[in-house]
Amino acid sequence: MVNELQAATAEGRKGKYWAGWVMSGLVIAFLLMDSVMKLLALPVVTETGGALGFQGADIARELGVVLLTCTVLYIFPRTAVLGAILLTGFLGGAVATHVRVGTHSSRMFYSAFIWACCFGADFYSIRLELCQPKPPPVR
Predict the structure, then answer these.
(1) Domain boundaries defined on the chain
(2) pLDDT value at position 48?
(3) CA distances from 112 to 72, 82, 136 (A)
(4) CA–CA gap between residue 71 and residue 53 (Å, rounded)
(5) Is 74 exposed, middle or buried (0-12, 13-18, 19+ CB in 10 A)?
(6) What is the dihedral sign for C-alpha 118, 126, 131, 25?
(7) What contacts 24+ positions apart, CB below 8 Å, involve 12-21?
(8) Which one of 19, 40, 102, 114 has the fewest beta carbons within 10 angstroms of its own beta carbon?
(9) Model's pTM, two decimal places?
């Protein structure tokens, strides 16, 4: 009975583990793509940024550096919490900018969706578990 319960728990944890990494991987891929686009100051970035009040390629590059830093911190399990907190601030600022300008609400959806994925799939029990040292086995 105990072995069956442990096996079921292990299978459930395994599924959550991979679900968490898949969700994190999608978020990381999107944020890396976004930061690279900002660092390159592509025309679509500068045009969209200008409409939101962020004029020029220099501001786009600065935002790219900030986003890349937050994303890199989020990638590594030891700094994932700090990265998630900084990404929360960054994405909250994106939503606040869209609210201030009065742009269509579907654009705000992307920031909220990325934030939800950052904390989805039981973030604290999956990613933070990797940060904690494993106790020695009891004999």
Answers:
(1) 10-131
(2) 86
(3) 20, 18, 40
(4) 24
(5) buried
(6) negative
(7) 16/121, 16/122, 16/125, 16/126, 17/126, 19/121, 20/120, 20/121, 20/122, 20/123, 20/126, 20/127, 21/126
(8) 102
(9) 0.73
